[in-house]
Predict the structure.
Amino acid sequence: MHLHILGICGTFMAGIAALAREAGHRVTGSDANAWPPMSTQLQAQGIELMSGYAPEHLQPAPDVVVVGNVITRGNPAIEYVLDQGLPYVSGPQWLAEHVLAGRHVLAVAGTHGKTTTSSLLAWLLDNAGLEPGFLIGGVPMNFGISARLGAGKYFVVEADEYDTAFFDKRSKFVHYRPRTCVLNNLEFDHADIFPDLASIERQFHHLIRTVPRSGRLIVNGADANLARVLEMGCWSETEYFDADSGWHATETDGGFELHQGERNHGAVTTPMAGLHNRSNALAAIAAAAHLGVLPRQAADALSRFRNTRRRLELRGEARGVQVYDDFAHHPTAIRVTVDALLRQAGGRVLAVLEPRSNTMRLGSHQAELSDSLSQADVCFVYARPDLKWNAQAALASLADKLHVAATLDQLVAAVVHEARPTDRILVMSNGDFGGVHQKLLDALSTSGQT
């Protein structure tokens, strides 16, 4: 079968492409933008990428067109699909029908931590010999790929609440029908499609409705919004993490003591920094336990976990200054990421933020950003041309530590001028940020030379 994927370089759709290719299908795809790690991963798998959305990409006609949720009416390719009556399907529906059917699905949902928790859960199951399949919105460094079919009956999927496609406005995760479902946390996000928090809570409850009575929910016991969702109705066994009655942790040097209610499972060593990652680890350990993975077995695997790319990933060092990359693009994620880096030994933290997501560009979170960035020693914000709010005015409370740049060149110059040996530059964006990481490393390398 020949699949052509529209929007193939998005993290989710790239995973669909990889799974289809592994299953023996011919896969091609179109996208307006392509950047690593997804573009390089696809090319390495022999998947043909086409730039733009020309109708000619669909000639001769593929057997099915898989439509990403970035595709809207008016897109030349989708207009051609509709005019010609070509078969089309959303990515989540294709996944559900061709990969997830008949398998024990472990879905990880939540506003934050989905990628890390999904990656960790897949690693815990793989370490236990269960050979899971997975589809993750990033590249787990333990595996080097974002998706695989797996040999076992288990499949781990990062379960996103964003809408499915232009013709299916339900959240993607309602397609997955999990038997084990992790609910990490819940906050307002995606202001471009959700009018308020209550509408997102309703989608999360739709997910809960799909979990069978014999399944299990793994729920953040410290999240009041999730508690409100469960009050709408729950029909499955429920276990909690970050709650004294369920899975919880007490901090130690280099890790934490793992507890399950009153039972102490001993010390756990983790390479992941930050309290948020401790919560992610608890969620993954609890979910793996549903499949019989023993806590000590999970703890051993956790000590060898390498996280995913773009999660506090050290991209390089120049003239004694380290440059980190992180996907953080929500105020809560920004705050905990800055905190996690501060908890590691080192010099000052220079936060560099691109407000790139639809929600960020619309300004829905501008009132919370100052607090999120306040722990950083110096803050640099890229005022993109499409930003709908005044970054200088909205973040004025940061006072002298704030620097707003209108262009990438100005941004790089300002950061390099400020940076000094032992500093750590933390770059945060949910896109490629114009390759600013390498621009910073190159500029740092040449700064001060005559």
Notes: Residues 202 and 229 are 7 Å apart (CA to CA). The two ends are 59 Å apart (CA to CA). Residues 2-90 form a domain with the Rossmann fold fold (CATH 3.40.50.720).
